[in-house]
DNA sequence: ACTATTTCCTGGATGC
DNA sequence: TGCATCCAGGAAATAG
């Protein structure tokens, strides 16, 4: 389930391999729910465009393009199971391949997404912005301000992309554990000192996960098809019933905002 | 204006 | 062994 560290890893890999290449042709499958822009528009913008760079914005992969109609962007959201694969032409198409971009270098960039929660979109210009703050660099006062007056569980607030863009279920749970905060506590009841600790925890967890190449839970792989290793460092996520690595208490699971939430009932207050 | 819940979707795990 | 059921969750849509 790609969150910020996984998307960062994939975007870096795509940029390293594909920056400067040119898209010569595009094939798009017939699953319209994946497309936030009409298929014809995506094909028109991508075909002939030069790839300036791939980068991450929130959980989105952004490809800056120099297209026939001027600057444009290809926005890829991986959803739950989306993958971007760089392949040699002629390789058999993986099941659930929804878009193939043929490249001047004779390789192909393929978007594969079995569960189809991903989204593909093109935009004019180079001005795509995430709806919320960038978690890796948000400053203390901005971070604290995000939670002011919010009568919702802190876990829900962390997952709200219009507050912080990029934090998902894994890293929300891991950050709350490190900060010693129970996921169900109301955001507005959390002290300034605790929020400062939470910001540090979020930034440490994300930095460590990026350094490890992300977390490979089910079938996540980066642009080279390599797995990440941060799942080996998870302290609570999917460790229900196992002992807390700090205090030995049994890790608990509850459901918040329809999401599994894992925490240590002794370490987290 | 907010917050909570439901919906979309498939593959892998589990249960009988 | 095989079939049915459950579960995973990002974010948009809907409900309260």
Task: Present the secondary structure layout.
Blueprint: H1 4-18, E1 23-28, H2 39-46, E2 50-57, E3 60-67, E4 70-77, E5 83-87, E6 97-103, E7 108-112, E8 119-124, H3 140-146, H4 154-159, H5 169-179, H6 192-211, E9 252-256, E10 259-263
Antiparallel strand pairs: 1-6, 2-3, 3-4, 4-8, 5-7, 6-7, 9-10
Helix pairs in contact: 1-6, 5-6
The protein binds a DNA duplex (16 and 16 nucleotides) through residues 1-3, 33, 59, 77-81, 96, 113-119, 150-152, 156, 159, 161, 168-169, 217-219, 257-260.
Outline the structure in words.
- With 269 residues, this protein is of the alpha+beta class.
- Helices cover 25% and strands 23% of the residues.
- It is built from six helices and ten strands, in the order H-E-H-E-E-E-E-E-E-E-H-H-H-H-E-E.
- The protein has helices at residues 4-18, 39-46, 140-146, 154-159, 169-179, 192-211, and strands at 23-28, 50-57, 60-67, 70-77, 83-87, 97-103, 108-112, 119-124, 252-256, 259-263.
- A four-stranded antiparallel β-sheet has the order 1-6-7-5, with helices on one face. A four-stranded antiparallel β-sheet has the order 2-3-4-8, with helices on one face. A two-stranded antiparallel ribbon has the order 9-10.
- Strand 3 and strand 4 form a beta hairpin.
- Helix 5 (169-179) packs across helix 6 (192-211).
- The model has no long low-confidence stretch (mean pLDDT 92).
- The structure holds a DNA duplex (16 and 16 nucleotides).
């Amino acid at each position: 389930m790609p969150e910020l560290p996984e998307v960062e890893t994939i975007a870096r890999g795509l940029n390293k391999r594909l920056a400067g290449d040119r898209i010569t042709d595009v094939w798009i499958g017939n699953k319209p729910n994946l497309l936030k822009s009409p298929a014809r528009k995506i094909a028109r913008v991508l075909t002939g465009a030069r790839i300036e760079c791939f980068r991450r914005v929130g959980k989105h992969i952004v490809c800056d393009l120099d297209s026939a109609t001027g600057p444009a962007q290809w926005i890829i959201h991986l959803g739950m199971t989306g993958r971007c694969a760089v392949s040699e032409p002629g390789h058999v198409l993986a099941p659930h391949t929804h878009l193939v971009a043929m490249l001047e270098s004779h390789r192909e960039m393929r978007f594969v997404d079995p569960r189809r929660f991903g989204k593909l979109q093109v935009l004019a210009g180079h001005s795509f912005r995430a709806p919320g703050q960038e978690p890796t660099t948000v400053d203390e006062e901005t971070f604290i301000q995000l939670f002011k007056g919010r009568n919702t569980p802190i876990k829900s607030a962390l997952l709200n992309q219009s507050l912080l863009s990029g934090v998902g279920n894994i890293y929300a749970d891991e950050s709350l554990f490190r900060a010693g905060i129970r996921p169900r506590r109301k955001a507005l009841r959390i002290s300034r000192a605790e929020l400062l600790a939470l910001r540090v925890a979020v930034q440490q967890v994300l930095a460590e996960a990026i350094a490890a190449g992300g977390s490979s839970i089910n079938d996540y792989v980066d642009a080279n098809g390599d797995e990440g290793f941060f799942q080996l460092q998870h302290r609570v996520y999917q460790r229900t019933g196992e002992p807390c690595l700090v205090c030995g208490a049994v890790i608990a699971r509850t459901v918040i905002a329809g999401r599994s939430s894992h925490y240590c009932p002794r370490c987290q207050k």
